[in-house]
Amino acid sequence: MIGRLNHVAIATADLEKSAAVYRDLLGAKVSAPHALPEHGVTVVFVELPNTKIELLQPLGDKSPIAAYLEKSPSGGMHHVCYEVDDIAAARDKLAAAGARVLGDIKIGAHGKPVVFLHPKDFVGTLVELEQA
After folding, report:
1. Looking at residue 87, what DSSP letter applies?
2. Percent of the chain residues past pLDDT 90, beyond the cut
3. Residue among 55, 50, 72, 45 at smallest CA distance from 17
4. How many C-beta atoms lie closer than 10 Å to residue 16's C-beta?
5. pLDDT higher than threshold 90 for residue 12
6. Domain residue spans of the chain
7. Which of 47, 54, 83, 128 is catalytic?
8. CA 52, CA 8: separation in Å to the nearest integer?
9. Do the Cβ atoms of 114 and 105 come closer than 8 Å?
10. Tens digit of pLDDT for each residue in 109-126?
11. Are 80 and 5 in contact, with CB atoms under 8 Å apart?
12. How far apart are CA 99 and CA 123, in angstroms?
């Protein structure tokens, strides 16, 4: 069902400092920050030859990343994202198998449909599925 790894998302309290680590120390291509108010985050995309890293900083007090950083102030891996061919079919199959789907399908940071899956059902990792 799952395809390639689309990205790994890392929560950070300091987006500029985190972007500098990838850009200046690791030599990666790093995008300008993009505010995504509908998701409560500001994101920077780090382009790698085989995938992407998304650096996420809270945008507003109700951001899910703000809640994450309250528990882990130094930041860290927030979720992994895998591509699927048909997001609705994947959601329905997983839900029928007992996996907890978090919310409805919505448009993600890359402009494609996404859905999140509960970490307790996926080895302690929040999983995002994105339609390829």
Report:
1. H
2. 96
3. 55
4. 11
5. yes
6. 5-131
7. 128
8. 7
9. yes
10. 999 999 999 999 999 999
11. yes
12. 12
pLDDT tens digits for range 49-58: 999 999 999 9
Q: Which CATH architecture has domain 5-131?
A: Roll (3.10)
- pLDDT for the residue 62: 87
- Looking at this protein, which amino acid is placed at residue 75? G
State how far the Cα of 43 lies from the Cα of 125, in Å rounded to an integer: 20
Q: What is the DSSP letter of 120?
A: G
Q: What is the structure's pLDDT at 16?
A: 97
* Residue entry with tokens 């007090």: 61
Q: What's at 69, amino acid-wise?
A: L
**How much is the pTM?**
0.94
Using alpha carbons, select from 129, 126, 57, 60 the residue that is nearest to residue 93: 129
Q: Where residue 61 falls among pLDDT bands split at 50, 70, 90?
A: confident
> How many angstroms separate the CA atoms of 28 and 132, rounded?
24
Residue 128 known to be catalytic: yes
Nearest to 81 by CA among 8, 2, 131: 8
